[in-house]
Specification:
The protein has 124 residues and is mostly helical. The protein contains four helices and no strands. Helices cover 86% and strands 0% of the residues. The radius of gyration is 16 Å and the shape is elongated. It has a single domain, classed as Four Helix Bundle (Hemerythrin (Met), subunit A), CATH 1.20.120. Helix 1 packs parallel to helix 3, helix 2 runs parallel beside helix 4 and helix 3 runs antiparallel to helix 4. It is found in: Membrane. Keywords: Membrane, Transmembrane, Transmembrane helix. InterPro entries: MAPEG-like_dom_sf, Membr-assoc_MAPEG. It comes from Pseudoalteromonas shioyasakiensis.
């Protein structure tokens, strides 16, 4: 049930990112594509980047929880993913490169640790 909590919180963040794109599209009167607008491009990429990484990360976290990983490790990995996606999403909106890098590092680290732990549980 730990993953369910993180999935729900991340879903809310995803909806917020969707609304940011919708709001910019409406304000700039751009219904398709980005119209060459830098702020809309950033919002679209933040939204897309989220959906490119979060589902796979949550699947791995679910598998770890399902296989009996102690809850504190699941919470740590979930918190890392949530923090990473929050940092990355807002860094793109405000063009904050250090925060963007931190967000991707946390996301990749979550994925790497999860992948290694899944492999280790298969070997032993």
């Amino acid at each position: 049930m730990i993953v369910s909590t993180f999935a729900a919180i991340l879903a809310i963040l995803y909806i917020q990112l969707s609304f940011r794109v919708i709001k910019l599209r409406k304000a700039k009167r751009i219904s398709l594509g980005d119209g060459g607008d830098a702020s809309l491009q950033a919002a679209i990429r933040a939204h897309a980047n989220f959906i490119e990484y979060v589902p796979f990360s949550l699947i791995m976290l679910f598998l770890l929880e399902y296989q009996g990983l102690p809850s504190h490790y699941c919470y740590i990995l979930g918190a890392m993913l949530l923090a990473g996606r929050f940092c990355h999403s807002y860094a793109l909106a405000d063009n904050l490169m250090k925060l963007r890098v931190l967000g991707m590092m946390l996301t990749f680290l979550t994925m790497l640790i999860s992948a290694v732990m899944l492999l280790v549980t298969q070997v032993f």
